[in-house]
Specification:
The chain is an alpha/beta fold and 307 residues long. The protein has helices at 57-61, 87-91, 110-120, 125-138, 154-168, 184-199, 211-217, 235-238, 242-247, 254-261, 274-285, and strands spanning 16-25, 34-42, 46-50, 72-77, 80-81, 94-97, 172-176, 203-207, 220-225, 228-233, 289-290, 294-295. The strands form three sheets. A six-stranded mixed β-sheet has the order 6-7-8-3-9-10. It has a four-stranded antiparallel β-sheet with strand order 2-1-4-5. The protein has a two-stranded antiparallel ribbon with strand order 11-12.
């Protein structure tokens, strides 16, 4: 079951928690991977970054916690320039989830892995224990708490990295492809957790290749292409632009594509989720009841168009 998508809103500079100002970055002496990006993310936003492989998504977000430093331009976290600030200091504000779990896990046991971050924050032992136990329970890791993370399956290792981030409980979460390796239950649990954090006011920045996830959860979608921001707006605005999606080598969510294909039959073409599509279809066809959903606003049966 998908959680409801966050509302989109534009932040002022006073609201900003993450900022990239004319940001340029290149590896070694190579071609710039990020080219003049200007991006402001407000406190409490749920932002999804999408784009083709090589568009600069991972390179961009690694600047938010100091894994990379600008070659030109500036990055600010909570209004402060990241230049001269250590990764440890930035980690207190920005929790980062790597695309591959093996890049992030290093402790001898799962329990120690989860305790590492809170311990470095200087939290008291009782608080560390409470956070670790809560994270183990939430991500169903209690049974493997004493095992080395390296011997676990990919999906379990992914859950370990998510649990480690949960134990840190930072105000900003930056996640690079967090759903890779998760089964359906793990996917639902992860987005349930993110939805709860978002309701509490956490800022979430998520990179994904899954347009269905982006459409269902983002309050704002930022599209990158060749190291630049080529679109930035609410999902409904971004995913209705066929030319933009083709330019960015992206495909619209399947349910949106279906809704657009049915425009000639009265559908708006704007559905971003299966739930929204079904609601519109029910209203259009005037079905009074369907299995598992109950009455559909008391409409009369018998006027379904031949779709």
């Amino acid at each position: 079951m998908w959680v409801k998508r966050a509302k989109h809103w534009r932040c002022t500079l006073a609201d900003a928690i993450l900022q990239a100002v004319d940001l340029w970055f290149w590896y070694g002496e190579g071609t710039p991977v990020v080219r003049g990006v200007n991006l402001t993310i407000g406190r409490g936003e749920f932002v999804v970054l999408v784009g083709a492989n090589g568009s600069g998504k991972t390179t961009l977000i690694k600047h938010f916690n100091g894994l990379l430093r600008p070659r030109r331009g500036q990055v600010r976290v909570a209004g402060q320039d990241t230049a001269g600030r250590s990764m440890g200091e930035l980690a207190r504000q920005v929790g980062y989830l790597f695309q591959r779990p093996e890049q992030q896990i290093f402790s001898p046991t799962v329990q120690q892995e989860l305790a590492f971050g809170p311990r470095n924050l200087g939290l008291p032992p009782a608080e560390i224990k409470a956070r670790v136990e809560a994270a183990l329970t939430r991500f169903r890791l209690t049974a493997v708490a004493g095992q080395p993370p390296a011997i676990l399956s990919y999906g379990l290792r992914r859950r370990v990295t998510l649990a480690s981030l949960a134990a840190m409980d930072p105000p900003v979460l930056v996640l690079d492809e967090p759903t890779v390796g998760l089964d359906a239950r793990g996917l639902e649990e992860t987005f349930g957790w993110l939805a709860g954090l978002h309701i509490q006011g956490r800022t979430i920045v998520l990179v994904t290749h899954d347009m269905t996830l982006a459409a269902a959860h983002a309050g704002r979608v930022v599209v990158l292409g060749q190291g630049q921001v080529i679109s930035d707006g609410p999902p409904a605005q971004v995913f209705r632009q066929n030319d933009l999606l083709a330019r960015a080598a992206l495909t619209m969510p399947p349910v949106t594509a279906l809704a657009q294909a049915l425009r000639s039959h009265g559908m708006s073409g704007d559905s971003l989720t299966v739930e929204a599509f079904c609601d519109e279809y029910i209203a259009l066809t005037e079905i009074t009841e369907i299995p598992g959903r109950g009455p559909a606003r008391g409409m009369e049966r018998g006027h379904e168009p031949a779709l």
